[in-house]
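Record format v2
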Amino acid sequence: APHILVVGNEKGGTGKSTIAFHIAVALMDAGLPVATLDLDGRQGSLTRYIENRCGFEELRNAGLPIPLGHRSLAPSGDAMADARAVDHALAELTSAEGGGARVVVVDTPGSDSALSRRGHAWADTLITPLNDSLVDLDVLALVDVQSDRIVRPSHYAAMVWEAKQARAQADGGEIQWIVLRNRLSNLNAHNKREMARLLGQLGPRLGFTLIAGLSERVIFRELFLAGLTLLDLRRAGVGQSLTMSHITARNELRALLKAINLGRRVR
Amino acid sequence: APHILVVGNEKGGTGKSTIAFHIAVALMDAGLPVATLDLDGRQGSLTRYIENRCGFEELRNAGLPIPLGHRSLAPSGDAMADARAVDHALAELTSAEGGGARVVVVDTPGSDSALSRRGHAWADTLITPLNDSLVDLDVLALVDVQSDRIVRPSHYAAMVWEAKQARAQADGGEIQWIVLRNRLSNLNAHNKREMARLLGQLGPRLGFTLIAGLSERVIFRELFLAGLTLLDLRRAGVGQSLTMSHITARNELRALLKAINLGRRVR
Ligand SMILES: Nc1ncnc2c1ncn2[C@@H]1O[C@H](COP(=O)(O)OP(=O)(O)OP(=O)(O)O)[C@@H](O)[C@H]1O
Ligand SMILES: Nc1ncnc2c1ncn2[C@@H]1O[C@H](COP(=O)(O)OP(=O)(O)OP(=O)(O)O)[C@@H](O)[C@H]1O
Ligand SMILES: [Mg+2]
Ligand SMILES: [Mg+2]
């Protein structure tokens, strides 16, 4: 069965679209047949990344890998219709006529929606990025200021739990949940320790694996207009060499890919 | 008439709630009668900030200024009812019985909603923060990769234009639109210049004033659990002294306040 990889977090601006795009490119780079699904159709950051990539490829003929298929869905106002649209898009993208993708990378909006909930319920792997910030942590769990302890899960954790239930009931399947610290800085040692500690406690309670994640690096965003990632820089048609910072960034991306267990069938 | 200050950007995680809270505290610090309205009731970051502040004040009796009133609205599913709820909340917060606020700071979600659109239509001042990122710029305007020029306005710019129309038709009033670069870093000179150039061109076209904004500083987020800002640190009950970085942060906040023209009547 194809592997559905969802990038989700109800908190805005945690890096969902950025990570969805970078994972899709990394998987294509590794030779896998990948399709992409944008469930944040109104904002469409992932769609824009892919349109920009196609535009760049048209100009430069650099041999850039492009997803086998891409769909973008925006809310229709009808929750049932939205859920059906998600099912339909996934079926299409993984069908032989639709491109035969074995992995579908799904981007979701930073808000609650029928499209997002349905997407989450299909996940084999759910990747949740967040900033190293107590404000971001708040959608996962409430923390008590006096004791610095976790009080209870918050609304996005509840949404993921419901998705896990939906998945289990649908086909007995499991969602592998990975939480990823994103936009990490070298500074603020105290804040970093605090986040690592709280997330470390939360993982076993909510059922997710914590991975170190990506640092704040302009290379993860400055190539947006060309739809490129640092992995594309050394291609013939692009022709840039990698700096030290790029190499560290590439290692961060590789560590992320390694943590995603795509399953033997896909490999 | 009371001054309605809306913090808006359909793009997620640009710093809306953080800035809404810091502006509210800064205005109360300056002695103004302030109320707060959270139109992102499901996520509730601004509400959580204020609840945490009240909790801290209960514990410590530090004499922290608290908003005269606070309301939180979440989508009801009925757009007309949502719009009426916004009107009602603003009327309540500015009424004598409701606290008599002369400034209402309104936080909005990082997504399109009836609550957010109605809030935008009431704005005297609209503050739009964004990251120094072409991905964030994309909701304001499409940029062509070959020419590095602005092609056309994007969906959030269109939403603001509609809000300006709604405001003009309602009472002939004007929305002062301020765009604020947030989470700025000292590094990445090329990217910073690029963003400054593109936003500089976009300002006159879309009708906003660009201000330099806030740097990425952990002091803007590490006090979330206590509902504090750096402006509170020197109060008797809190008793911390300011570091050099705090002083620079305070100057950034002051520059932001200065740029907001609250109008003679409020002062
Ligand atoms: N590791 C990183 N290094 C540098 N910039 C980053 C990184 N991750 C994300 N960004 C930038 O941070 C901002 C938010 O990222 P992104 O748009 O991918 O988040 P999102 O969760 O998809 O947001 P939304 O909730 O609006 O969909 C963007 O400007 C993006 O370019
Ligand atoms: N100037 C800053 N310095 C450091 N951290 C910041 C700054 N501004 C915002 N942040 C952090 O960035 C993240 C996003 O900020 P915030 O939640 O205020 O954005 P938002 O636009 O309200 O997001 P949403 O779209 O989810 O409502 C939070 O983790 C916040 O603590
Ligand atoms: Mg996104
Ligand atoms: Mg917010």
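Chain B has a mean pLDDT of 94.
Residues 189-206 of chain B form the longest helix (18 residues).
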